[in-house]
Design brief:
- This protein is an alpha/beta fold.
- It has eight helices and seven strands, in the order βαβαβαβαβαβαααβ.
- A seven-stranded parallel sheet has the order 3-2-1-4-5-6-7, with helices on both faces.
- α1 (15-26) crosses α8 (222-233).
- The radius of gyration is 18 Å and the shape is globular.
- Bound molecules: NADP nicotinamide-adenine-dinucleotide phosphate.
- NADP nicotinamide-adenine-dinucleotide phosphate is lined by residues 10-11, 13-17, 35-37, 60-63, 88-91, 111, 115, 144, 146, 189, 191-192, 194-197.
């Protein structure tokens, strides 16, 4: 589905970002993985190459404007063209709002919102200069949002606020680029089986709480998010821009809490 396409993915050393890299490669794309965890990122790219994939790794802290610009410049010269950018890097911080330190609020906003802005803006500037591809598009930007852009958990308020911002940023960038052949969409996963999820649902009581809000009665797998990214990156999503798609096991549609199986 993505044969001959190229993709840049932030926060790709593990979790959803890595699953997107794996799935994009499976679908025929060449992928530039980036992260702040050099060892894990290099090792992930190495494993993808060993399995026959076209993968390369570069460090990039998405809060650093120069680093994001360098990443986009490297991708453009390495691939010749950037078809898809996935602004995926994100962190979470748990604290009662009344005790929340301003430094922690700023830190989460810097990665989850400023980072998504920087990645999208720098990618967009490059994409608008590219020739349209065979499908007539100049590029696709995908932002990793969350169901927490819509529903809220007060114990992770900076994360919730940032993801709400990601949805609005997605619309702003999409509207700005709609007539220029660049599509911009977001994915808002529910609870997905990654280290980030385990940090939240690390005890049986917490997991029970999460599942009581999950009609499909299980967390999602990272690849179930990656497959949505493949759809948004490809021509089947050719008339979609400014949207957030929610692979959430039914959570956003839930009104009453469902009984949890023992
Ligand atoms: P994850 O397993 O924690 O992976 C996130 C990756 O991003 C890590 O490799 C992390 O590196 C990296 N990272 C952290 N700060 C960075 C920075 N400043 N610049 C570049 N990379 C950075 O998380 P995940 O669960 O895969 O989440 C990926 C995205 O999906 C996030 O935006 C998250 O909010 C979103 N999401 C996740 C879930 C879920 O349930 N898992 C649900 C909804 C949305 P370190 O390991 O060194 O920190």
């Amino acid at each position: 589905m993505l044969k001959g396409k190229t993709a840049v993915i932030t926060g790709a050393a593990r979790g959803i970002g890595l699953a997107c890299a794996q799935r994009f490669i499976q679908e025929g794309a060449a992928v530039l993985l980036s992260d702040i965890d050099s060892a894990a990122g290099e090792s992930a790219a190495e494993q993808l190459r060993a399995a026959g994939g076209d993968a390369v790794y570069r460090d990039c802290d998405v809060t650093d404007a120069d680093a994001v610009q360098a990443l986009i410049d490297f991708a453009a010269s390495h691939f010749g063209r950037i078809d898809t950018v996935i602004a995926n890097a994100g962190i979470v911080h748990s604290a009662d709002i009344l005790d929340l330190a301003v430094e922690d609020f700023d830190r989460v906003l810097a990665v989850n919102l400023r980072g998504v802005f920087l990645t999208g803006q720098r990618a967009a500037k490059r994409m608008v200069t590219q020739q349209p591809d065979a499908d007539g598009g100049k590029g696709v930007i995908i932002n990793m949002s969350s169901i927490n852009a819509v529903v809220a958990i007060p114990g992770i308020a900076p994360y919730v606020v940032a993801k709400g911002g990601v949805n609005q940023w997605t619309k702003c960038l999409a509207l700005r680029l709609a007539a220029e052949g660049v599509r911009v969409n977001a994915i808002g996963p529910g609870s997905i089986n990654t280290e980030m999820f385990h940090a939240i649902a690390d005890n049986p009581q917490k997991l029970r709480e999460v599942l009581s809000r999950t009609p499909m009665q299980r967390p999602g797998e990272p690849d179930e998010v990656a497959k949505v990214a493949v759809f948004l990156a490809g021509d089947y999503a050719s008339y979609m821009t400014g949207q957030t798609v929610y692979p959430d096991g039914g959570r956003l549609g839930l009104n009453y809490v469902v009984p949890v199986k023992e």
